[in-house]
Amino acid sequence: MDAGQPVMERAPSDAADARRKRVLLTNAYGPYELKWGQAPMDLLGARLARGHKMFERSSHLPTWALYLIAENVHNPCTVLEFPRWDDFIKEVKKNYDVIAFQIKTIHTARIARMVRAVRELSPATEIVLGGYGVGPLYEGVPHDPERLGEYLLANANHVCRGEGVRFMREVLHDYPVDRPITQIHLPPSTVHPSERSSVEIPMPAILVSLGCPSACDFCNTSAFFHHKKIQVATPQVVYDTMKAHAKELGLDELTFILFDEDIFLDPPFVRELGRLIRSDRKTWAFRWISFGSVRALSLGNFTGRELRECGVQGIWIGVESGMVESEHAGYGKREASLTPPQLFADLRNHGIQTIGSMILGFDFHTKQNIEADIDYFLSLRPTFYQIGPMRPCPGTKLYRLMSKEQRINNNYTWNDFHLWEVGSHKVANFSDPELRAAYDLAHEKQRTVLGSPVLSIYECNLLAYQNLRDADTEFLRFHARLARDAVRTLFPVVTGIMRNAPSPEVERRAAHLLAQASVALDGDGMFAWAFRGIAGEVMTLLGRKAARDALREAERNLPETAWAPDVRLTRYNVPGKRAPLIDKLSSGDVQHGRKRRALRGFVQSFARV
Ligand code: B12
Ligand code: SF4
Fold first, then answer.
1. Ligand 2 contacts CB of residue 320 (under 6 A)
2. Does the Cβ of 219 fall within 6 Å of ligand 2?
3. Is the predicted pLDDT of residue 604 greater than 70, yes or no?
C-alpha cells in the first residue's frame, strides 16, 4: 500500500470525468433495532459508558469507509448513509452505474433486500459488497432459510475482502491504484457529554492500518484480513491529516481516533508521530486514542510518560479476563512482562485514559469464579469499559472449533451477530439467563463501585496534573496545564455526581477526588471558587431533574423503539466544487427504549436525594 503524502485536492471538471461511472455508496437502511435497551450504534451509551444515564456520555460515529472511498476516487460519488428505505429507492431509480454496499453481518437481510431492489429497478447497475460482513457470507450461519449469504455472493459483481480504496479504484479503472490515500473530508464522530446535551465534541478519525497478526481465536478483524496487517498511512500522513482536520474545525485542541488494531506493535510509528506532534507548539494539544495490547506496549518498552509525550490520550486494551494470565494462557497479546494492573496504573498516573474490554462466558468461567473475574476487571479502574458475552463469529478459529464440538446452535442467524446476544451457542457453564445475569451484574458493579466514567476521567486528569506539573520538559508541563484545566471544568460535574451518587462507595470516591482537586486548585481565587460552587449546585439540581424525568418516562412505560439517526447524503466530485456537498435528508430521532426495568436502577440511585 502506498502511504505517501496527502495529495492536493482537485476540482473535477475535465471531459474524462464526464465519462466516469457514477457511484452510490451506502449502508443498510434504518431505523435500527435496540439491543438490550440501547442503540448498538451509540458506542458510549450502549457499551463504554453503559448504565449511567444523566452522567453517561452518548456518541455518534459515521460509516467512515464510505466517505474514505468517495474521497479517494475520481468518479462522481454519492454517499447515502443510514438511509430509510424510501431514500434508498429514490437513489436507485437514478440508475447509478455502480452501487457499493458496506455490509455488517447483523444487516445481511437488509442488504439482501436492497440488492434485490437494485436488480429489479436498475438491472444494469454493478453491485459491490465490502466491509466485515463479507467474511461470514462464505461460511454462512446455521439458520439461513432464504440462503441470503449465497444470494448476495451470486448477485454481487465485485466482493471486497481487503483495503477498500484500492479495490474500488480497480473496479472503476481509476488508475494508478497505488496513489496516496487522503482522509481530510471524513466527517468526525461526535461525543455528547450527556444523553440530553446538545453540546457536541468533534473527534475526527484516521485509518492507520487494517488487520492484526496476533490471531486471537475469537477475533473477527484479525481473521477477516487473514491475520495480516495492511498499512494505510505513515506517521507523516497521519500528522498532516490531523492538521487538516484541526484547520477545518477551527480547533487546536483536538482528540483523534486512530484505527489500527494494535498500533504499539510498530513502536517507530508511535514515536515518530509523537515527535511530529511535539515538533510544532501549535499541535501540542493534539491527542489520540487507539487500540493496543499489553504485549505490544510491553515489548515496545513504552512507559506512561513516553506515551503521553507521543500524544496518547486513550488506549483500548482487550483484557478479556484476569484468569488468562495464569491458568488459561493462550492469547499472545497477553504474554508480556507487564501485567494489566501495572499497565493500567501507569497509564492512569500519566492521565492516559483506558477503555478496558472483558469477555464473559469463557469455558473456564464458572458460576463460582465469574464474579471474582469481574472484580479483577473493576480493580483495573478502566476509564471506560466494554463487557460482553463471548461471541463466536463465522470465519474465526473459535467458531470453527465450536462448530466441531457441536456447540453452535441451529437457531444462529445473521441477526445474532452482535455483542448483546446469548442463546445462539452453548456456553460451557452458564445457561443463557445466567450469562445475561453476569452481564447485568458486571454493569451494576461498574455503576455502584466505580460510578460514572466522568469520575475516572477526573481522576486521570488530577493524577496527570499532580505528576507532570514539575516535569523536566516544557511539553509535559503544558500537558499538566491541560489536565489542570479539565480538573477545573469538571469540578461542578463531579460535585453533581457526588450529590446524586448511586452508592455510598461512589459518593466517597467523588468526595475524595474533590478533596484532592481542592488542594490542586489551591491557588484559584475567590471568584473561581464561587463560580464552581454555583455551578455545582446547578449540576446537582440537573441530576435531580433527570431523575424525575426518568421516573415520569418509566411511568408512561414507553415501548422499546428503534434508533433512527440522521440520513446523510454527500456528493463528491461535483463539477466545479472542490469539497464534498452535504445534505441532511431527515432529522435524527433517537428514541431510546424506556422500560421500567431498564430505568429502575437509575431511579433508585436518585431516590435518596
Ligand atoms: C467504528 C466501529 C463501529 C461504530 C461505527 C459504525 C458505523 N457507523 O458504521 C459503532 C460504534 C457505531 C459500531 C457499531 C457496531 N458495530 Co462496529 N466497529 C467499528 C470498528 C471499531 C471500526 C470500523 C471503522 O469505521 N473503521 C475505519 C474504516 C475506515 O475502516 P473499515 O470500516 O475497516 O473500512 C475499510 C475496509 O474494511 C473496507 N471496507 C469497509 N466497508 C466497505 C464497503 C465497501 C463497498 C468496500 C468496497 C470496502 C469496504 O475498505 C475500508 C478502507 O480500506 C470495527 C472494528 C475494527 N477495528 O475495524 C467494528 C466492527 C465493524 N463492528 C462490528 C459490530 C458487530 C458492530 C455492532 C453490531 C455492535 C457490536 N460490536 O456488537 C454495531 C452495529 C451497528 C450498526 N447498526 O451498524 C463488527 C462487524 C463484524 C461483522 N462481521 O459484521 C466489527 C468488525 C467489530 C468486531 N470486532 O467484530 N461499530
Ligand atoms: S490482539 Fe486484538 S486485534 Fe489482534 S488478534 Fe487479538 S483481539 Fe484481535
1. no
2. yes
3. no
